[in-house]
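quick q for whoever's on today - can somebody do inverse folding on this one?? i tried earlier but teh output was garbage lol. tokens:
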């Protein structure tokens, strides 16, 4: 089992914060198995996810990923919540959902059971009735006219005091953030499995091109490797 305090030190945000993306991948580059990511990492990867969430102000997730991966309300375990309180933070980070369709109900557990009021990131052309309904249970952030303007959204989150951002995907959101030049760090868990198949990589739909990253650390945990890269 990973040492949570040591991992918090290893993954502390750079001064001024930034946007980091967290993914798990198989040895042969698969982002999912049987359509989901959960089988790639194991218990230590789940522990690391808790550590990364405990360090974040906001956890950014695409609406489709949230539904597909079965997210509930973003609530940390007691130890993580206690650490945040001891460090002057709210017990739980806020969940920010990036969505154009707004295909959620105000009664969904991600809103109804949320310990901190979620944020919905959308655009001006999103259905007005759904925006109004979700505004009852979340802060609706409108960024862009007919598509979500991610640089505008990240700036707005920063202006709200949310400097430490953690994106948990999915691959299309990662790709859009990459194209927009917004990715400061990649936290990648390398799972000790070979998957095969034609499943997605951790990035989808981004323009092909080299983006240089530098290795911050490579930490083994059993047969897993926790990799942290920072933009050069």
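ok took a stab at it. sequence:
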């Amino acid at each position: 089992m990973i040492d949570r305090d040591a991992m918090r030190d290893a993954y502390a945000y750079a001064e001024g914060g930034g946007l980091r993306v967290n993914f798990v991948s198989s040895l042969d580059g698969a982002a999912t198995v049987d359509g989901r990511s959960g089988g790639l990492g194991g218990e230590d990867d789940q522990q690391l996810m808790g550590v990364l969430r405990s360090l974040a102000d906001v956890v950014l997730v695409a609406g489709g990923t949230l539904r597909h991966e079965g997210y509930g309300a973003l609530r940390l375990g007691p130890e993580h919540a206690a650490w945040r309180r001891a460090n002057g933070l709210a017990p739980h980070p806020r969940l920010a959902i990036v969505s154009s369709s707004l295909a959620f109900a105000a009664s969904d557990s991600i809103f109804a059971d949320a310990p901190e009021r979620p944020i919905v990131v959308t655009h001006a052309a999103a259905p007005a009735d759904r925006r109004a309904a979700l505004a009852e249970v979340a802060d609706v952030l409108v960024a862009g006219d007919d598509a979500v303007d991610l640089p505008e959204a990240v700036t707005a989150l920063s202006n709200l005091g949310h400097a430490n951002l953690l994106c948990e995907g999915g691959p299309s959101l990662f790709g859009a953030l990459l194209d927009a030049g917004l990715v400061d760090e990649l936290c990648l868990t390398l799972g000790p499995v070979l998957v095969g198949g034609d499943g997605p990589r951790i990035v989808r739909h981004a323009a092909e091109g080299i983006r240089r990253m530098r290795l911050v650390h490579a930490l083994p945990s059993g047969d897993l490797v926790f990799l942290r890269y920072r933009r050069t």
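fwiw The chain is about 30% helix and 25% strand. also The chain has a mean pLDDT of 95. so keep that in mind when u check it
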